[in-house]
Fold this protein.
Amino acid sequence: MIEQIYTYFTIDMLYYWVNLGVLPFWLILIFFPTSSLCRYFVTSIFPFIILSGGYIFLLYKSYLSSYDFNSNFSLYLGIDNIKELFSNKNFLMMFWIHFISINLFTGGWIVKDSQKFMMSKFLLSIPLIILYLIGPLGLLVYWLIRIFYAKNISLYD
């Protein structure tokens, strides 16, 4: 059975499952940010346990294929090194899970933070959609909207 799972979850299949798997979480964040479903499943540790499982599986697959993990540290040496690392599907998938996890965590934080200021769900959906598509720009848009609701600028909240 484990062998069947191992052969089914290729890098490409894992990519599809991760991308499809986070969509329900994002849809709940955007359309039902104040629901208990959002609170218990999306803004909790639950989605990160699932994504971590995929990450651990990917690390295991990489280890079995003799992936050189020491080469990951070369990404700090220059843009050409990053380009070389991204040519490896294992590293690219590790990065993608990392990126999706951080975006989802940030989306959950935005929803929790917006509830302190009782922001409208419609207004909240704008930075969440931008965050899903573009990442940090969505966080900036939320922060700009939040300034008007909080009526102050605080860099430490």
